[in-house]
Design goal:
By secondary structure, the chain is an alpha/beta fold. The protein is built from twelve helices and ten strands. The strands form two sheets. The chain has an eight-stranded parallel beta sheet.
């Protein structure tokens, strides 16, 4: 495992474990996943050197935090547990209450990294940061982070807090390369961290699907997996396959290696199986050549999936095509984030 070190913060592995799927019924997992598989995944992650475990109060309505806390047990003291709160009403008493509830579910007496899940434009930045700053002063939380903030908001958050906001958790992958333009360079200059969620674009970058083999079940309802978007992703997926062969790796591993190639980035893919977890962690050891990285970046920059109204229209057209049908949810969707 390769590690990222920032002064005043425990070193973190470049691959963490996202736990959105822990306890979340919508992913199609049964009770056995929560009681058996999730615990096995956390145990194996610890063995592999994973030191960042990300969750949120909204994941499974608190079940993810509870399952993660139980699975970590005494090992929680030696890792960075990151959780997020919903800043619907980011007043100090409310945020404090949410923090203590998360701590109780996680079995912690302090949250190493506490993140605002998104920016609430209805409240001044000072309000949210004042609440977080007080929690940090009281040693209830270690470091403060944000999620889904653009660079301007991230900088305003730091100004309002009067100290560093260590991390920003954002969607970042070959299918969503935007953070390369501003967030990653700024984090590198200022010794901050970008935490990449959905680094495998919900499985798109595993190169398992294409326009002739679209997914069924859960993924079939995702805009990114529209046939037109799969067609547009074709050149990127083909390049991933080519580079994967050269490295004796999988396309998903190459996609993760690209995410980690530049700047202070930690990726937090989920995992539905031990094998998938092991493959994800192994990706941290893959060193892409400069030409490979540039080629992948160029393809990422020209990939423009349909969104919004255009995506809705495409979905309507797809429904008129023969062969489309609903099926049960894919069991591995969350593990391919």
């Amino acid at each position: 495992m390769r590690y990222l070190e920032v002064e005043g913060f425990p070193r973190v592995g470049r691959i963490g474990l996202g736990t959105w799927q822990f306890g979340s019924r919508e992913w199609g997992y049964g009770d056995a996943y929560a009681s058996v598989t999730a615990h096995a995944l956390v145990g194996r992650a610890l063995e592999l050197g994973v030191t960042l475990f990300d969750t949120a109060e909204i994941y499974g309505r608190g079940r993810s935090e509870r399952i993660l806390g139980e699975a970590l047990g005494a090992d929680a003291a030696g890792v960075v547990v990151a959780t997020k709160f919903l800043p619907v009403l980011p007043l100090t008493p409310v945020v404090r209450s949410r923090a203590y509830r998360s701590m109780a579910r996680l079995g912690l007496d302090r949250i190493p990294l506490y993140q605002a899940h998104f920016a609430n434009p209805l409240f001044p930045m000072d309000v949210t940061m004042r609440a977080l700053g007080e929690l940090q002063d009281e040693k209830v939380v270690g470091e403060i982070g944000v999620s889904n903030y653009d660079l301007a908001r991230w900088r305003r958050a730091e100004h309002a807090l009067g100290r560093r906001v260590l991390s920003n958790q954002v969607e970042f992958s070959l299918a969503a390369p935007g953070p390369l333009c501003d967030l990653v360079p700024w984090a590198e200059r200022n010794r901050r961290i970008v935490i990449a969620y959905s680094p495998l674009a919900q499985g798109l970058l595993g190169s398992r699907y294409d326009e002739y083999n679209p997914p069924q079940g859960f993924r079939a309802h995702k805009t990114l997996f529209l046939r037109e978007n799969l067609r547009r992703a074709g050149p990127l997926l083909e390049l991933l396959r080519e580079i994967a062969v050269a490295h004796d790796a999988t396309p998903a591993q190459i996609a993760l290696a690209w995410t980690l190639h530049q700047g202070p980035v930690v990726a937090i893919p989920g995992a539905s199986t031990i094998e998938q977890l092991e493959h994800n962690v192994a990706a941290a050891e893959i060193a892409l050549g400069a030409d490979e990285y540039r080629a992948l970046t160029a393809q990422a920059e020209v990939f423009e999936p349909l969104r919004g109204v255009d995506a809705v229209r495409a979905r309507v057209r797809n429904r008129a095509l023969p062969g489309d049908r609903d099926s049960k949810a894919d069991a591995d969707v969350a593990g391919s984030r």
